[in-house]
Structure formats: structure tokens, C-alpha cells
Design goal:
Blueprint lengths: L2 E7 L13 E2 L2 E2 H9 L7 E6 L2 H9 L4 E3 L7 H9 L6 E4 L9 H10 L7 E6 L4 H4 L6 E4 L5 E5 L10 E11 H9 L4 H6 L3 H6 L5 E5 L9 H13 L1
Parallel strand pairs: 1-4, 1-6, 4-5, 7-11
Antiparallel strand pairs: 2-3, 6-10, 7-10, 8-9, 8-10
Length: 236
């Protein structure tokens, strides 16, 4: 099956404005993600779905593949779906633009999960969930059912034991037809309230297969997060 990676890249993010262009060792954060994604063996191509001419100018100068999308989208998956409309692919992987140290093998695992004819959407979660993460509303937790599918997602503090929850990683692989179906659905009430796009899938009966990894993924939501990533990168 043909798989293509798309990185939704909105310039005016709320918590960390212009995050995607923030330099890490002189290179915009989203370009680090792009370079990592291109190492995935399962992807035929990778492109960045942008929404601003400034982003286009910066990335064009770095010879990065881009596609312009509408400024207003309810989620990154909606933006990726617009970018994917005319792409010849069976699988689309929606890759977060704030994971500069993304392990390419995780993309390969997600694409492999969709080789199962019954799996149409998959995401990832880290088994490394520290006690502080459980009560941190910035850390999205995912609870699995017995079939290895997402049962629920939450930002709220969890009273249950650590063993029941995993740290969600915001990367999604879709069969292309299922992505288009997802994007055609209106944002669900839970999605809007909790600001978690994956709840649109669960609220509409779309199963989400979860691939587990031990890599301690943490997205960059603030300057402080970026400093932690730099420290981890240097010590690894």
C-alpha cells in the first residue's frame, strides 16, 4: 500500500505562537520533523500542509515540499485531509509538527498496523508515563481496551493506577478513505470541549488502534518544553 506523510503546520498556534518556525540549531522546528519523517521506510513522500505565505517562503528556501491549505481548520487531521485530497495514496500519516525528535520507526509501525484489513485508523502511545504526568492536564492520557484500541482519552488527572493509562502521542495513520470520512464529520461536542480531535473518531464509532512504544515522546507546547527536548537530545 502507498503511504504518504503529511505534517499540518499552522503558523499562529495559541500556546506557542509561530512554534513551527522556531529555530532549533538554526533550523525551523517543523523542518526537523520533516527530515525525521523522510527517514521512515514506509513513506513514499512527505509534505507539510501550511496556511501562511510566510511559512511558504521560509520552507521554500529550505527546499521543503509544501501544500497550501485553508487557514481555518478544526484540527490538524482536517488540514491533512485537505492536503491529501488529490494525493495518490492508500494511507495518510498525520504527523505533528512539534515532534522534532520523532523516531521514524514509529511511523513504520503505524503504517504496518494498517496492513490489518480491519484497522482503518491508528495512533501511538508511550508506556513511559511518570507520576507527574498523570495529574498534568497538558499530558493526554489514553486508556486501552482488551483489543489494543483506544477506549478513552483525557487531559484530566487520573485517579486510577499508572498501569491502566499510557501517554498519548499525537500522530495518526489513516486509510485515506477513513480520513476523508473523519474530515467530513462535524467536530463532536467532546472534541470541542476537551480540545482533542481524536474524540471525534470515538464519538462516531471509529475504532483507533494504539501502537505502544517506550520512547518518551513529549510535544513542544512552550519554550520550557523545547529546552527539555534539547537536553534529552544532547544526552541520548
Amino acid at each position: 500500500m502507498k503511504a504518504v506523510g503529511i505534517i499540518p503546520a499552522r503558523l499562529k498556534s495559541t500556546r506557542f505562537p509561530r512554534k513551527i518556525l522556531h529555530p532549533i540549531e538554526g533550523i525551523p522546528m517543523v523542518v526537523h520533523v520533516y527530515n525525521q519523517a523522510r527517514k521512515a521506510k514506509s513513506l513514499l513522500d512527505v509534505l507539510i500542509a501550511i496556511d501562511d505565505l510566510e511559512t511558504e517562503d521560509v520552507l521554500k528556501s529550505l527546499k521543503v515540499k509544501t501544500i497550501m491549505t485553508a487557514k481555518k481548520h478544526a484540527s490538524g487531521t482536517d488540514r491533512a485531509a485537505e492536503a491529501a485530497e488529490d494525493i495518490d495514496a492508500d494511507i495518510i500519516v498525520n504527523i505533528q509538527g512539534d515532534e522534532p525528535f520523532l523516531d521514524p520507526s514509529l511511523i513504520d509501525e503505524l503504517v504496518s498496523a494498517l496492513a490489518d484489513g480491519e484497522v482503518e485508523m491508528a495512533t501511538a502511545a508511550s508506556t513511559i508515563l511518570e507520576p507527574g504526568d498523570v495529574y498534568n492536564s497538558n499530558v493526554v492520557k489514553v486508556l486501552l481496551n482488551n483489543q489494543g484500541q483506544a477506549r478513552s482519552f483525557s487531559r484530566e488527572p487520573r485517579q486510577q493506577t499508572l498501569g491502566g493509562y499510557y501517554r498519548h502521542i499525537g500522530i495518526y495513520a489513516f486509510k485515506k478513505e477513513k480520513m476523508m470520512e473523519f474530515a467530513a464529520l462535524p467536530p463532536s461536542d467532546n472534541e470541542k470541549y476537551y480540545k482533542l480531535e481524536q474524540l471525534r473518531a470515538l464519538d462516531n464509532g471509529i475504532p483507533i488502534k494504539v501502537v505502544l512504544t517506550r520512547y518518551p515522546y513529549k510535544g513542544v507546547d512552550s519554550i520550557e518544553d523545547l529546552q527539555q527536548f534539547k537536553g534529552y537530545h544532547e544526552s541520548s
